């Protein structure tokens, strides 16, 4: 099968014919129908985040179950449409038992081995071991994944919507619904209007927050944010971001979702808070990135910075809700979809991402 392989940091991905093993115990094989081009993959391609190579990238995907391995639970069957989850769920560790499965112990296994849940891979080429990204590796025609890494997709949800819902949408909408509390009638700002940030804007609108303020430097993204629920926008090019937010709100915002993941934007986020306010950080950066915040401002004004991975969700509960909201017309996720490209144009897709393209690019293997 064909797959996009990362062999060298900073080099283009190579489209290669690779061998895919049959699924082992507790695993399934999925034929990929759509895969979203996410900035997180770019972090691995540039070396901001470490991974073993060669590596098949892609972690935001959806497809159809083609084969089921031995000793599976029976939860999915051949022919089922599924979305891929980049966090497994063992159901037995403390995080899973207390209802926080995005911190499942097997997330660390996937990250350190770049394999599946047993630490080994199903990808090879001429005897060479090829690694998995986040237990998914969906920039390929097919994948073998743990059965805990998929969730069924209802009729009426297109493959590209299912793909982005299981990563960008659940991260952004989830952060607004789960990491933010009692937002109705209060200001909520989202810093960064990429795919995840735009999803956070939609989530903020669902909470009843007002005003919903989108912050970005791209006028096209800000225009889209307004269509998705932002009541006000802050154009970074128009001047000091903090001053613009304070002018809109008077005292700052009680909640700000930071969807960029850069030291300078994190500092801006903290400065935009009113006393007692909270920054919800959902944007990733390089492993050594840090941010300096004024200690006295944090203490005396009781400001907080909290992290939110995967929208602080329980995917098996929250992703079906997202699908239901989409089917009910409450989440206009079609607006997030940008262009479509074949898998062979994966490098062109990432060139578009780097240049600030609006909407989520979709690859179709």
Short summary of the structure?
The protein folds into 2 domains: 185 residues, Medium-chain alcohol dehydrogenases, catalytic domain (Quinone Oxidoreductase, Chain A, domain 1, Alpha-Beta Complex); 143 residues, Rossmann fold (3-Layer(aba) Sandwich).
Give the overall shape. Answer: globular
Q: Please give the share of residues in helix.
A: 25-40%
CATH architecture field of the largest domain: Alpha-Beta Complex
Helix tally equals 11
Number of domains: 2
Describe the 3D structure.
The structure is a single chain. The chain is of the alpha/beta class. Helix content is 30%, strand content 26%. It has helices at 39-46, 94-97, 106-113, 159-179, 195-207, 219-227, 241-249, 263-271, 295-300, 315-327, 346-354; strands spanning 2-6, 14-17, 19-20, 27-36, 55-56, 61-68, 81-84, 123-125, 128-132, 142-146, 150-152, 188-191, 212-216, 232-235, 253-258, 273-281, 304-307, 337-342, 360-364. The strands form 3 sheets. Strands 4, 6, 7, 10, 11, 18 and 19 form a 7-stranded mixed beta sheet that branches. A hairpin with a 2-residue loop joins β8 and β9. α4 crosses α5 and α4 (159-179) crosses α10 (315-327). The longest helix is centred in the middle third of the chain and has 21 residues, at 159-179.
């Amino acid at each position: 099968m064909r797959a996009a392989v990362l062999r060298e940091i900073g080099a283009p991905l190579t489209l290669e014919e690779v061998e895919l093993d049959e699924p082992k115990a507790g695993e399934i094989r999925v034929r990929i129908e759509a895969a979203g081009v996410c900035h997180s993959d770019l972090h691995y391609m540039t070396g901001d985040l470490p991974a073993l190579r060669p590596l098949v990238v892609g972690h935001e995907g959806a497809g159809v179950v083609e084969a089921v391995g031995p000793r599976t639970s029976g939860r999915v069957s051949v022919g089922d449409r599924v979305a891929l989850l980049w966090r497994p769920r063992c159901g037995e560790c403390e995080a899973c038992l207390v209802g926080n499965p995005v911190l499942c112990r097997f997330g660390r296994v996937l990250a350190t081995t770049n394999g599946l849940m047993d630490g080994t891979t199903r990808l090879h080429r001429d005897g060479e071991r090829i690694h998995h990204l986040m237990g998914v590796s969906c920039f390929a025609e097919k994948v073998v994944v743990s059965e805990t890494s998929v969730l069924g997709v209802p009729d009426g949800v297109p493959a590209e919507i299912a793909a982005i819902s299981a990563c960008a949408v659940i991260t952004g909408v989830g952060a607004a619904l789960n990491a933010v509390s009692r937002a109705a009638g209060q200001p909520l700002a989202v810093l960064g209007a990429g795919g995840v940030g735009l999803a956070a804007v939609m989530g903020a609108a669902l909470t009843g927050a007002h005003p919903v303020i989108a912050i970005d430097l791209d006028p096209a993204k800000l225009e889209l944010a307004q269509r998705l629920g932002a009541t006000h926008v802050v154009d970074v090019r128009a001047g000091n971001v903090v001053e613009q937010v304070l002018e809109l709100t008077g005292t700052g915002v009680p909640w700000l979702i930071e969807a960029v993941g850069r030291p300078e934007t994190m500092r801006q986020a903290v400065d935009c808070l009113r006393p007692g306010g909270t920054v919800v950080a959902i944007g990733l950066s390089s492993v050594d990135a840090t941010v300096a915040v004024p200690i006295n401002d944090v203490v005396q004004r009781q400001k907080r910075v909290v992290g939110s991975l995967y929208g602080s969700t329980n995917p098996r509960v929250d992703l079906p809700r997202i699908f239901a909201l989409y089917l009910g017309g409450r989440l206009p996720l079609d607006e997030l979809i940008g262009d479509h490209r074949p898998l062979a144009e994966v490098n062109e897709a990432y060139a578009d991402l780097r240049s600030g393209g609006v909407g989520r690019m979709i690859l179709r293997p």
